[in-house]
What we know:
alpha+beta; Calcium-transporting ATPase, cytoplasmic transduction domain A; Rossmann fold; Calcium-transporting ATPase, cytoplasmic domain N; seven-stranded mixed sheet; six-stranded antiparallel sheet; 26 helices; elongated
Amino acid sequence: MERASRTADSGRHRLGPLLLIATTAALVAGGLAWLVGRGELADVCWAIGTVIGVAPAVTWVVGALRRGRVGVDLIAVLALAGTLVVGEYLAGALIAVMLATGRTLEAAAGRRASRDLQALLERAPRTARCRRGGEIVLVDLDEVAVGEVLVVGSGEVVPVDGAVTAGLAVLDESVLSGEPEQVERRSGDEVRSGVVNAGGVFDLTATATARDSTYAGIVRLAREAAAERAPAVRLAERYASWFLPLTLGLAGVAWALSGEPVRAVAVLVVATPCPLLLAVPVAVVSGMSRAARRGVIVRDGRALESLGRARTLVIDKTGTLTAGRPRVREVAAAPDGLSPAEVLRLAASVDQVSVHVLAMAITREARDRGLGLSLPGGVVEEPGRGAAGTVDGRRITVGRTDLASAELPGWARTVDNCALLDGATVAWVTVDGRLSGAVLLHDPLRRDAPHTVRRLRTAGLTRLLLLTGDRPEPARQVGTVLGLDDVRAGQLPADKVRAVREECGHAVTMMVGDGVNDAPALAAADIGVAMGARGATSASEAADIVLSTDRVARLADAMDIAVRARRIAVQSAAGGMALSLLAMVAALLGLLPPAAGALLQEAIDVAAILNALRVVLPAPGTGGPPLEPTAEQLILRFAAEHEDLRGALDAIREAASLLSVDPGPRALAAVHHVDRLLTERLLPHEHAEEHQLYPALNEQFGGPDTTETMSRAHAEIERLARRIAAHLTIADGAGALLPEQLDDLRASLYGLHTVLRLHFSQEEESYFSLSS
């Protein structure tokens, strides 16, 4: 049945272009014959073109009637048949060409990728290794029975649901949860099929067959969601629901009043709904073309029409609103030991030989800060625990700690608490067996996420819901920062599908995701949007819209384009039908014969199509001027400097913390270090922004109001920096920090740290995200 359906669809897609070629050839041939004075031959050519148009049009009408729909094609069929009956062959040929053109455009807009989620099936394992009779035997996956013990090798996909038999399993569950962090499963813990073994070999006792396991359920869920989704009603069909009976009524009145069938045919000819058959597809296809130039691939016209009506957005967190990979948030050091920069350098020196996602993030951060890494020796990596090696003669470990929370020293408990509050992951660093520091990692928000959310609301969305497989703490933080309407954490694929279906019951709902775990929800939504730049193939296969660039902001662009395309399509169709209605009245009164009516209808069609083609052009007053090369270069420069200055922010916080635990010479040295960073690096950076970047942005976007708030932040940063320098002058004069200085100096450091973090975030969101 599926194969027959696909064959029929393929045939319909090929029929449109062939029909267009044949009818156009007949129309042109008749025109040439008429020009050389062969009127009879011209009528024959035009009649052939009309007949060519009638046959497929009748099949389309019959097919629509079987589905319980009466569309605009019925008017075209009646008009074509009428022109043949009364001998108005030119009118019939013109209508046939317009009908074929509309069908060709619809076919071009309607081709879409298969929804069978073939990528999901290709990824699923076909075999499993079972322990049978003291041997490890390779068997087909369908032969695995409940209770059998399977061997899962490093890097393999877990074939069926089961429980860890012995030892420790380190798993990458991102395919199901969407989260990039690896998890540990110990003896007796349940493991779901579809996840990847990121550690060593482990044994798994099957608790379900392949058919009943989680991964097979995801495939079925996605197929069912796609099959159960009701097809969208096309814009043209909604207009046809009232235009068709009106046309037939006027044609009947014309025949009844005049007693002449030719007058009824004249009404049908001028009523031929080419503004619906052509203007609407032209506007839709033009919108799809414009969206594609913005990196948004819309798979069919229905998706673009629905996108223009979307009111609810359901969005995944990881890889969509966030970067999708861990990043160092903060580096902490024991108060009586190494500096944060040295802690990071030692950790990265060991981790540079590891392929663990957290290790790569730590190494990348150290290199971004310009820290010189040493070549480690004797590196040993234990899955789920971390790595250990010798760096510059000291034994360094990076990863988990065996100490319970209550056994951690005071500074480490503070770090542990901050990680819990911020939803961060901690990589503890020990030096020669002593806990000496920690690296906090998180999945940061995309720079353009807040701006994108505001633009999406402006484009017409009234409800934004976050669904994520992540923990509640980081999910709630994202929801709070972005001002989302609802946040649901710990969501499995089935949970996401239920939530999407619930939202679809209230409004046209769009779902955005990027992983295999999102594919069922994408298929269930009215509009599925996949992050195609880095997302899973299965997500793209299940989606109506694919973002080919790794920027959610492009979705806001697509919504603007869809809303405008829909508005212009409505204008074109409504305007064309209004003019057709006036022509129908003239034909009813006998003022417009069929041939003249056909020519007038062509003029109406051309006007409607030209109006629809406006979609290809940028909307007036939107988008603003392109970023000037000078402004673009400055943005890139200062964005890079922000990355370089993140270590300075750590130093400011570290100095403030030292004032609380050890306000002696070490704390004074840390404040002096901060002062040097401020004087030599941070304040020159802020000064250059104020006098180079901000003037360029003001010139680009029209006046000092663009950067006035940021300039005020620069003034506050400089005030706090001068206050810290004044405290150092007092302390140097006294030979030590005075007790009466500590509270104000600590407040100044913490205040500066907070202002800088907020200021950096605002600049990155408002200005740096403008760069392509």
